[in-house]
């Protein structure tokens, strides 16, 4: 599984491991800002895309909006991981598959 993460404050792979998720069969890349987000998505071709809302220089919402308007292949699963529930809801309304508060990211079914 290829996992691309846009999150600027927390090491999501470390959060997964501390939550008991084995990352052995995953290729994980975390981007600490959203510069050139679509280029990274196109290059990495993730199965799972995790988007934080509060990302410099553009929000996760805007990354998702641009991705959906582009001709780039959409990852199989797009998950909003903001710490603000209303921002997650906005991304789901835009087209994310699901959302979760980032501190609970290890509980997602996609890791099973």
Structural write-up:
It is a single chain. The chain starts with a strand and ends in a 13-residue tail after the last strand. It has 112 residues and is an alpha/beta fold. The chain is 31% helix and 18% strand. A five-stranded parallel sheet has the order 2-1-3-4-5. The mean pLDDT is 97. The relative contact order is 0.21. The chain is globular, with a radius of gyration of 13 Å. Helix 1 links the parallel strand 1 (2-6) and strand 2. The protein has helices spanning 12-18, 37-44, 60-69, 85-94; strands at 2-6, 27-31, 48-51, 77-80, 98-99.
Descriptive key words:
alpha/beta; 31% helix; 112 residues
Name the shape in a single word.
globular
Q: How many H/I helices?
A: 4
What Rg, in angstroms, do the CA atoms define?
A: 13 Å
Which sequence of SSEs, written as H and E, runs from N to C?
A: EHEHEHEHE
Estimated helix fraction: 25-40%
Strand order of the largest sheet: 2-1-3-4-5
Mean pLDDT rating? 97
Spatial separation of the terminal alpha carbons: 11 Å
- Runs in which pLDDT lies below 50 for 5 or more consecutive residues are none
Q: How does the helix and strand content classify structurally?
A: alpha/beta
| Beta-strand residue fraction | 15-25%
Major sheet details:
5 strands, parallel
Number of strands: 5
């Amino acid at each position: 599984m290829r996992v691309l993460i846009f999150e600027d404050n927390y090491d999501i792979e470390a959060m997964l491991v501390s939550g008991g998720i084995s990352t052995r069969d995953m290729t994980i890349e975390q981007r600490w800002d959203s510069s050139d987000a679509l280029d990274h998505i196109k290059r990495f071709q993730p199965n799972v895309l995790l988007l934080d809302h509060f990302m410099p220089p553009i929000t996760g919402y805007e990354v998702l909006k641009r991705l959906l308007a582009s001709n780039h292949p959409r990852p199989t699963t797009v998950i909003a991981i903001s710490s603000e529930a209303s921002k997650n809801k906005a991304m789901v309304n835009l087209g994310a598959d699901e959302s979760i508060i980032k501190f609970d990211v290890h509980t997602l079914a996609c890791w099973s």
